[in-house]
Amino acid sequence: MQRLGEKYQSVEAFGWAARDSSGHLSPFVFSRRETGEEEVRVKVLYCGVCHSDLHCLKNEWHSSIYPLVPGHEIVGEVTEIGRKVSKFSIGDKIGVGCIVDSCRACESCREDQENYCTKSVATYNGVHYDGTVNYGGYSDHIVVDERYAVKIPHTLPLASAAPLLCAGISMYSPMKYFGLAGPGKHIGIVGLGGLGHIGVRFAKAFGSKVTVVSSTAGKSKDALEIFGADGFLVSTDEDQMQAAMGTMDGIIDTVSASHPILPLIGLLKPSGKLVLLGATEKPFDLHAFSLILGRKSIAGSAIGGIKETQEMINFAAEHGIKAEIETISMEYVNTAMDRLAKGDVRYRFVIDIANTLTVTRS
Ligand code: NAP
Ligand code: ZN
């Protein structure tokens, strides 16, 4: 079925898509729209591999639209600009994250929190206002309204900046919003993966004290020595967890799979907050008393607004914050997904789109 708007998609594009919930990615030719008046066309240089890509590929959130081209940690170069574009010029290095449009009129949009607009449009697996399905950054180029893109400062290495567009902002925003960013605050970061490791770096740059809570004892050295955490707890070690009870002002939980949260609530000081970022499929087991005694709260947080994303990128450039990455080729992406599912990544895969995508087109 042709969707409204597809007839305007006249520019050929090439990427890798999954055709079903096996999640297997393979070459895919499709079309993108002409560059609109307020839009830029971006040649994708690098795209990070977020665990959300894996959730979507496998339809773990029961909302996947196939064919599905993932990718929302995009860094690229502007190759074409619309007549009314004022923020970017041709040749600029820019970033595109998880959303590419929103209603622009609701309270959230007016307050620069487009990420909470109920009509926001996801970069991939989202349906655009013209009725077309969006395809993400595992592709040669993308067209985006300039309002939903950010500038990448010259001092940031492009490949390791890519994960900031989702993982970076997803950690930065709740630390600030929930008052955990700054000296005197003790943050727990649960799950030392793509989000978690960048979170440690931001938290340290804010001056907070950081303890990583991990299910992998072998990550202790990286947490403490490479990322600069102040402490490391193995979540399955009851003695360690017991000794740390009541010590944290807030916890940011990035775990991508079902896991017990009661021990995490126990780590909080009175009035402490547990902020859930990991988008797990199954509901959590929760007892009211774990919150009542100590006036604790559980919250969620989703990425951040575009203005805050620019602020986060500028802060990262100023403080030399980047992701710890393993750069991969497009051909390697299915192996990378298998490894990500097993937790075998230190700490984010980034696809070198510019140098490795075209050769996969036969
Ligand atoms: P990731 O790189 O796979 O990291 C997740 C980490 O969680 C793993 O490294 C592992 O850390 C821990 N973990 C995984 N399975 C576990 C299990 N069964 N039990 C305990 N710990 C486990 O994933 P990511 O890209 O950081 O994304 C994490 C989650 O956040 C995903 O669900 C993703 O969809 C979601 N997300 C949310 C937002 C948002 O704005 N809310 C934005 C982006 C992503 P340890 O080895 O240290 O335990
Ligand atoms: Zn993501």
From TrEMBL:
The molecular function terms in GO held by this entry are: oxidoreductase activity, acting on the CH-OH group of donors, NAD or NADP as acceptor; zinc ion binding
Record GO biological process: lignin biosynthetic process
Against Pfam families, the record matches this protein to:
ADH_N, ADH_zinc_N
Q: Which domain of life is it from?
A: Eukaryota
* Enoyl reductase (ER) domain: residues covered: 23-351
Cofactor(s) this protein cannot do without: Zn(2+)
Q: Which UniProt keywords apply?
A: Metal-binding, Oxidoreductase, Zinc
Which SUPFAM superfamilies has this protein been placed in? Answer: GroES-like, NAD(P)-binding Rossmann-fold domains
- Gene3D superfamilies according to UniProt: Medium-chain alcohol dehydrogenases, catalytic domain, NAD(P)-binding Rossmann-like Domain
What the record says about family reads: Belongs to the zinc-containing alcohol dehydrogenase family.
Q: How does it assemble?
A: Homodimer.
Q: What is this protein called?
A: Enoyl reductase (ER) domain-containing protein
